[in-house]
Amino acid sequence: MLFSKIWLPLLSLPLAVRAALSIKSAKVSINSAENTVIHSEALRSVPLPDPVRVGATDTLKISFIVVDDDTGKPVQPHQAFLRFWDGKALEEGIQPLRVDTNGKSKFELNMRRPPPSLPATTESTPLNVSLILGSFNVAPAHIQLFAAYLPASAPVVPHEEEVTFHLQLEIVHTFRPDQKHPPKLISAVFAGVALAPWAVLFYLLSYLPITVSQSLSTAPFVALIAAFEGLLLWYWADLKLGQVLAYGAALGLVTAAAGKHALGSL
What we know:
Pathway: Protein modification; protein glycosylation. This is Ribophorin II. Helix content is 31%, strand content 25%. The chain is α+β, with helices and mostly antiparallel strands. The chain has a 5-stranded mixed sheet, covered by helices on one side. It has a 4-stranded antiparallel sheet with strand order 2-1-4-7, with no helix packed on it.
């Protein structure tokens, strides 16, 4: 169906159509596996009124001569195809034909080795066989030949991976629930634990006789301890463990040096 819709209009685009194509001396025959003629009929008027039946081991043979309608002389068309059309399943098979310079052409369909282009067949539905001819300077022709009952096609064995191309069950993902903040009471307790060393530090410093010069000496040490607290807060918010360890190691060396200097000034 698709083939005829696409190619027939293309074949009818010559600049100057001077004639039309037709066939003569057309004949269809069915031979058995032993090459015995089972049925033979001349295609004097097409399409044939009665369909032909081809057995599972038979061979369908078609022969004809392409001629020019005006002159009656043999013509070699540029394109020739045999079309097998299943009007019920709306499927078709196209078989290219070779036409000699004298217009003669032959086609054989061996049902023991059917071509892949043949559509799937059933014994209850015939295929409509037609001939499509086209040439650059001659009007194309689509000639209905006959209907043919062919043996039913063998059932298609499903591929072992065919099921993977069917609709599958929906994959339902189970995501971890969003992180929840702890109760405010627990947060307040741990915040108090984190701030307790500072309270102890300031309490003990109140017992020390600290002068202004000593305060300036211990200020870097206190600031570095505060930086450690800030680093832990940063780790909780954004940093990764490896980054915290690297930054903490560098900050620890500086804090140790500042602490030694602060203790020496007391």
